[in-house]
Amino acid sequence: MAKQPMMKFVSVGRVMPEKRDASVRAHDFDEIYAEYAEAKAQEQAARCSQCGVPYCQSHCPLHNNIPDWLRLTAEGRLEEAYEISQATNTFPEICGRICPQDRLCEGNCVIEKSGHGTVTIGAVEKYITDTAWDKGWVKPIVPAQERPESVGIIGAGPGGLAAADRLRREGVQVTVYDRYDRAGGLMTYGIPSFKLEKDIVMRRNKQLEDGGVTFRLNCDVGKDISFDEIRSAHDAVVIATGVYKTRDLQGPGAGAEGIVRAIDFLTASNRLNFGDTVPEFDSGELNAEGKKVVVIGGGDTAMDCVRTAVRQGAESVKCLYRRDRANMPGSQRETANAEEEGVIFEWLAAPKGFSGEPVKGVMVQRMRLGQPDATGRQSPEVIEGADYVEDADLVIKALGFEPEDLPALWDQPDLEVTRWGTVKAEFTTGATAMDGVYAIGDIVRGASLVVWAIRDGRDCADAILERLNASTAVAAE
After folding, report:
1. How many domains does the chain divide into?
2. Last residue of a domain, one of 378, 400, 422
3. How far apart are the C-alpha atoms of 468 and 172, rounded to whole Å?
4. pTM of the entire structure?
5. CATH number at residue 273
6. Is 73 helix (H, G, I), strand (E, B) or coil?
7. Where are the transmembrane segments (predicted)?
8. CB–CB of 409/239 below 8 Å?
9. pLDDT digit string (tens) for 337-355?
10. Is-contact 141 173, C-beta < 8 A?
């Protein structure tokens, strides 16, 4: 009888892929983690306890069959592991890189709770699909049969692309409209290359294009084409625009030169890494080189900004967040990576105003945590008389994103939105009150995770297919 390859968590410790030294990685935009070797991937996958109730799976938005593909990896059956992995996840190699596993699957691993250190789920997931691409196991999109129906998708981010992939595999004609010149949304222009190298995203874009998905890029809905035109051209429309409107800063001097949006800063950096000409970077407006940089915010976007500023050669990089470390929304792993690279975090600190034109300093007020608010989080309170000024030549606003006013931008008063400005839609299907119109991802949820957008895109595609099949059946009677 073959030796049981699993449940080695007692004898084998948790080992992440080798991480490049901070003194080296802080000078380039290459990914910071190396790949597992095959033997190491098998060894780490074998630490899975194959527990009866896999909390890793239940806490994954896609409900990936994690124990199954870990076992197959441990047994050296890597192609089968890939097949199981991609059955529930459109972009597993992307999720393996950018999902906050410490808050999702790995953070709920049973052996982590028992003190043995979590299974390195994300690193194994990345390894499986990277190997699948290298070995040619990732097959082209070839529908068994073409269908006459078409679906228009507004937004080429993870949700829109996941829906496009699922619909196209069933033979539906798919057109994706996006305002940018490259598909991928925040995966292309928002997330830095040291977390997600861009050839990974471009490879998926090409797979979709080669598979028959039509991309209409540099196409701003409401300006270059109307929503009504898109709606009349397709049997269904999916709104997958994401949320790009930046929450603004208040206080004196908030409009000073040198105070910039996180999305602009990150987009300029990513465009530069594509080899594009970026005038705002060349002029110094969106370039941190030689500057004292202050980033305001505590989410993953803030972590991306501080680590990008380090790589651009900033003189110093500080991050202000109004709560403490334990209450920050961003990944603790990303925070630790930033600290290793020289970023200084000022916890319990919030901007009160700004001095100088262009900006020369942030007026900071010290905070303490008071009673919990309606969400259960402790509310920050100002400590009177504890203000100080933080020197700054470049201030980056990373306070989160809000939805644009789509009913006004697209002249669609019937498109219902919530009091937060997000589109009203069924969470299970994405259906809105407008016939044949669906909405998914951040434009429904508010700023969220890539993995949730993928989940929404897949669910919405299934709902559209059900609708199209029902219509076909009625027409055949």
Report:
1. 3
2. 400
3. 10
4. 0.93
5. 3.50.50.60
6. helix
7. none
8. no
9. 999 999 999 999 999 999 9
10. no
Q: What is the pLDDT of residue 8?
A: 58
User: Where are the strands (E) in 386-452, listed by range?
Assistant: 388-391, 394-397, 401-402, 437-439
3 state DSSP class of 237: strand
Question: Which parts of the chain register pLDDT below 50?
Answer: 1-2, 10
Are residue 131 and residue 172 in the same domain, yes or no? Answer: no
Encoded tokens for 221: 């809905």
CA dihedral angle for residue 192, residue 440, residue 96, residue 45, rounded to 10 degrees: 170
First vs last Cα of the chain: how many Å apart?
57
| CA–CA dist 387, 393 (Å, integer) | 19
Of 423, 462, 460, 429, nearest in space to 445 by CA: 423
Tell me the two tokens of residue 74: 């441990």
Q: Residue type for 187, please?
A: M
CA 337 to CA 333: how far, in whole Å?
A: 6
Hey, what amino acid is at 296? I
- Cα–Cα distances (Å) from 350 to 231, 320, 364, 366, 390, in that order, read 45, 6, 6, 7, 11
State the CB neighbour count (10 A cutoff) for residue 54.
23
Our CA dihedral for 164, 168, 174, 178, rounded to 10 degrees, sits at 30
**What pLDDT is stored for residue 310 in this prediction?**
98
The model's pLDDT over 185-212, given as tens digits with 9 standing for 90+, comes to 999 999 999 999 999 999 999 999 999 9
At 113 the pLDDT is 74
